[in-house]
Amino acid sequence: MVALQTAAASGLTRIGLQSASAAEPAAVDNAPAIVIGSGYGGAVAALRLGQAGIRTIVLEMGRLWNTPGSDGKVFCSTAAPDQRSMWFRTRTEAPLATFLWLDVVNRDISLYPGVLDRVRFANMSVFVGRGVGGGSLVNGGMAVTPLRSYFAEQFPTVDVNEMYGTYFPRARSVLGVNSVDPAWFESTEWYRFTRVSRKHAQNTGLRTTFVPSVYDFGHMQREAAGTATKSALGQEVIYGNNHGKRSLDKTYLASALGTGNVTIHTLEKVRGIERAADGTYVLTADRIDATGKVIETKQYGCTYLFLGGGSLGTTELLVRARETGTLPALDASVGSGWGTNGNVMLGRANHLWDTVGANQSTMPVMAIDDWANTANPVFAEIAPLPTGLEHWVSLYLALTKNPQRASFSYDSGTGGVRLGWTAAQSAVSVSMAKKLFDRINSANSTIYRYDLFGSPSKIFADDFTYHPLGGCVLGRATDNYGRVKGYSKLYVTDGSLVPGSIGVNPLVTITALAERTMARVLAEDTAP
Ligand code: FAE
User: Fold this and answer.
1) Which residue, of 22, 255, 485, 491, is most buried by count of CB atoms within 10 Å of its CB?
2) From 124, 466, 473, 515, mutation site for ligand 1 pocket: most ligand atoms within 8 A of C-beta
3) Ligand 1 site: residues with CB under 6 angstroms?
4) Is 381 a catalytic residue?
5) C-alpha angle with apex 174: 162 to 494, nearest 5 degrees?
6) Distance 135 CA to ligand 1 centre (A)
7) Which residue of the set 200, 219, 391, 467 is catalytic?
8) CA nearest neighbour of 499 among 463, 464, 468
9) Of ligand 1's atoms, which has the minimum distance to the CA of residue 493?
């Protein structure tokens, strides 16, 4: 793998330094291949195209996160968020709204292309990462391979043996997936919160399982020993990690740039896709400055177009293209099959003797696995709440097998999309999470926390998701390999292929599916 320094030497530092000004006419910048977005799906496409010797431009609406701010750090922590935290907001919008009902979590900030976005629809808001690396910059790093039987249920047309024999291992290897040392886990103060939740699960007769991660546990142990700068142990996660996290800019994207065939343009948001008479694709992209002002509108042309804007980004682009007539032959299923991966967040209040510890690692390493319970399948991560103080809270992100799906529709007034997700659909996830955690509370004589999610005494945070999935589902909006129906040389490689649920955290699945798509496309579609 190419080290980041090497990648920087081969192009990373040039990112975003295009010289055109608003006064200049829009010129068409051509490349054989263009990738929209630099999250997991986009990064896999970029690396494999670059390795195949195909000159590729990646267009990313967020910034490159490699320049320290005045505090000497690239990213800010959850404890002291500043403008770097959120995508053009005047106040942070963290998932936990309050603590002891007090508005102490969020802070006023100034407008800036920060790293975490919360995209709000009528009944659901969606957290996504913005920047070179997409969601890998802000996520919890849990790198879980889905249960084979559930993967087969969700992707009945995909060769499961090939996925588990080739593409999942390939994805895990390039992502740098590793696991916490069990002996260290049992002894360190930083995972006391996890051990307490494990005990309560065991008291209920429930199974727990370790979950692997893309966070470097060697680095984390050095953080604990005081020989490395604290990141996971320094309250860094949803606004970025300054150390330890193997985000995509250090893995897939560094290697992509190392091929010498890939260039990444930052702060450029694609808003239109059309097809020229010769079959090539023409993109319109707005380049913004640090205040969000559009300083240039650019045009790009390419033969092969890969969509890696994530479930929201890719689906919005395709729904708009179909409804405004620039790609009218797109399938009617584009925009549908969207789900939240059944996400619900909740907290439990522990007894005074069950201290969870003032020191908590931000990287979860364990989950309560009750997916095999066919009456109520739930996989619940044991999540940290690192405040630096003892608070007796056990926090969880429950992934429930909620079968509800929603569709996006085009809003001609704004040019954006609406999401048809309803509160009743979220209630299905809540009911499943509640069934599991009522059992845990009953077995341990504990209660829920009522003070964490705002609006008087909300127990279950069912109004946001970290796992937007679907919108351009594999085998429906695309063929069995992500080729978009109705158009040749147009591909989806991101989370919009996953039909609304995968039962575990999705980054490994998205990466492995993208690897599968790229192997097939490069073998069959790009031959001269
Ligand atoms: P994604 O990573 O979202 O990348 C899309 C990229 O495209 C972004 O960089 C966008 O800025 C960019 N983009 C979008 N539209 C445009 C456009 N029009 N023009 C130019 N650029 C555009 O997509 N998953 C796990 O497996 N484990 C975890 O522990 C975990 N924790 C999470 C914690 C948080 C706070 C969040 C927000 C997510 C978490 N996830 C986790 C979810 C995971 O990060 C997510 O499923 C993947 O990042 C999705 O990958 P995609 O390639 O689909």
Assistant:
1) 491
2) 466
3) 36-42, 59-62, 127-130, 134-135, 138-142, 238, 269-270, 308-311, 313, 317, 466-467, 494-495, 505-507, 510
4) yes
5) 70
6) 3
7) 467
8) 468
9) 52
Tokens of residue 480, six digits: 């069995």
Q: Is 449 helix (H, G, I), strand (E, B) or coil?
A: coil
Pairwise CA distance, residues 248 & 13, whole Å: 16
Nearest residue by C-alpha to atom 14 in ligand 1: 309
The answer to whether 467 is a known catalytic residue is yes
What distance in angstroms lies between residue 128's CA and the mean position of ligand 1's atoms? 5
pTM: 0.96
Helices 507-524 and 40-51 cross at an angle (nearest 10°) of 30
How many angstroms separate the CA atoms of 203 and 185, rounded? 20
Amino acid of residue 152: A
Q: Are 340 and 470 in contact (CB under 8 A)?
A: no
Q: 452: CA distance to ligand 1 center in Å?
A: 25
Per-residue pLDDT of the chain (528 residues; tens, 9 = 90+): 333 433 433 334 333 333 334 444 456 799 999 999 999 999 999 999 999 999 999 999 999 999 999 999 999 999 899 999 999 999 999 988 777 777 778 999 999 999 999 999 999 999 999 999 999 999 999 999 999 999 999 999 999 999 999 999 999 999 999 999 999 999 999 999 999 999 999 999 999 999 999 999 999 999 999 999 999 999 999 999 999 999 999 999 999 999 999 999 999 999 999 999 999 999 999 999 999 999 999 999 999 999 999 999 999 999 999 999 999 999 999 999 999 999 999 999 999 999 999 999 999 999 999 999 999 999 999 999 998 999 999 999 999 999 999 999 999 999 999 999 999 999 999 999 999 999 999 999 999 999 999 877 899 999 999 999 999 999 999 999 999 999 999 999 999 999 999 999 999 999 999 999 999 999 999 866
